């Protein structure tokens, strides 16, 4: 299976705040790399044989690539807005395809069943009509006008509300979620999923948030988001096949899966096949 199209993408490989001068080893697409901080305080990434890799530091993370990225890391303008709290949630290792992890993040139909009485509840299980598109100018997948009733939409929420979402996929293993901000109507909370592909069936997931929330302790914000994703992990690790099927005939979509369908079509268009299953077995 070719990984040519994926090799030139940016991937998270560690937290800036935890970067050590003597370095730490991790995997990127099956290759051992070392992430360290040099004498000038800047991040460096190299392969086991000493080949220097491209590096950028944004959104609380060190990013690198085994290839040569054609463009800078995608922009999240909200990260620069005054008053937002930038939250490094940490990392969760998941035994699934990195593409499966992103697709699960795009799915709202599972909220009442996996995140019961937090992000969803019965009988509020209907997914209303929403809009999905591949924005050609930015080359990104977007889902807008997504609305869902949630008993506790955020750690700062005091009761159930109908939450509005926008989903954005700016890179094959990254997704950005914009959602109703309970403390500041008219603004969006930003919750991201940055996925590091360790192998085709194993990944590290690095959630990160940019929130308007001046009251909730940082530890509580982190624990709330970790709890949500840990509820997802058991589902992800039991999906068969582990790799994300790109053949439209391998899994039957419903109206709630429109974003997933667009995401898979976008992956296939760009030959993003690392961590994907192309034919039925």
TrEMBL record:
Keywords from the named record: Dioxygenase, Oxidoreductase
InterPro entries membership: Cholesterol_7-desaturase, VanA_C_cat
Listed GO MF terms: dioxygenase activity
Chain ranges passing through the membrane: none
Family matches, as Gene3D superfamilies: Naphthalene 1,2-dioxygenase Alpha Subunit, Chain A, domain 1
Positions of the Vanillate O-demethylase oxygenase-like C-terminal catalytic domain: 94-269
A Pfam family annotated for this UniProt entry: VanA_C
Protein name: Aromatic ring-hydroxylating dioxygenase subunit alpha
Native species: Agrobacterium cavarae
